[in-house]
Specification:
Blueprint (H helix, E strand, L loop, with lengths): L25 E4 L9 E6 L5 E5 L5 E6 L4 E7 L2 E6 L4 E7 L5 E8 L5 E9 L2 E8 L3 E9 L4 E10 L4 E7 L4 E6 L3 E5 L2
Antiparallel strand pairs: 1-2, 2-3, 3-4, 5-6, 6-7, 7-8, 9-10, 10-11, 11-12, 13-14, 14-15
Length: 189
């Protein structure tokens, strides 16, 4: 079946740091008390990049300038994290119910050319998966404190080519890894 209709947006966000093809990925923080007060977290992979928080009608609520190329943001609970493509580290924040981001810390991936990222919980633990342009995917067990973050390597998954798109299914305890132009792989813990 081929879709022949058109899709019209309900809302549109404003611009992000930088110009050109810099808005790459977004995540949605769902407000547990009132889902209508949820936020869209966008990022900018410009060298002057950072994170932007928008309400559901597209209005900017807050922004956090990192002055670094930020890519592939994800959220789990009140934790927001994203790849810093300049340092190959993961930047970690908390989001408030007002949409304000507070920087918690960063952790090193030990990987060159970080690319994709996802974050999620399984069996009461917070996990991050980071991919590189070489096809390496590294899983981290992440601990987030009030003003610090630490991460321990759990395992490496090696695919034969570039991976970027990833998502964690918290209910099933699985991560889905997209190997570009090849396949989508479900990986269990």
């Amino acid at each position: 079946m081929v879709f022949t209709g058109s899709v019209q947006p309900l809302a549109e966000t404003g611009t992000v740091f930088g110009s050109g093809d810099v808005a790459d990925d977004s995540a949605i923080w769902v407000n547990p008390a009132d889902p209508t007060q949820s936020f869209i977290i966008g990022e900018s992979k410009a060298t002057s990049g950072g994170l932007h928080v928008f309400n559901l009608t597209g209005g900017e609520v807050s922004r956090f300038a990192t002055n670094a190329p930020i890519g592939n943001v994800d959220v789990s609970g009140d934790i927001v994290a994203a790849v810093n493509r300049g340092t190959n580290n993961i930047e970690v924040f908390r989001i408030s119910d007002k949409g304000q981001l507070t920087e918690v810390g960063t952790f090193a991936t030990g990987m060159p050319d970080v690319y994709g990222f996802t974050l999620g919980q399984s069996s009461g633990k917070l996990y991050a998966f980071v991919s590189s342009q070489t096809g390496l995917v590294r899983q981290f067990d992440v601990t987030v404190g009030t003003s610090s973050v630490s991460a321990a390597d759990v395992r490496d998954i090696k695919l034969s080519s570039i991976t970027e798109g990833m998502a964690i299914d918290e209910a099933k305890g699985a991560v889905y890894i997209a190997q570009e132009d090849v396949a989508l792989y479900p990986v269990l813990p």
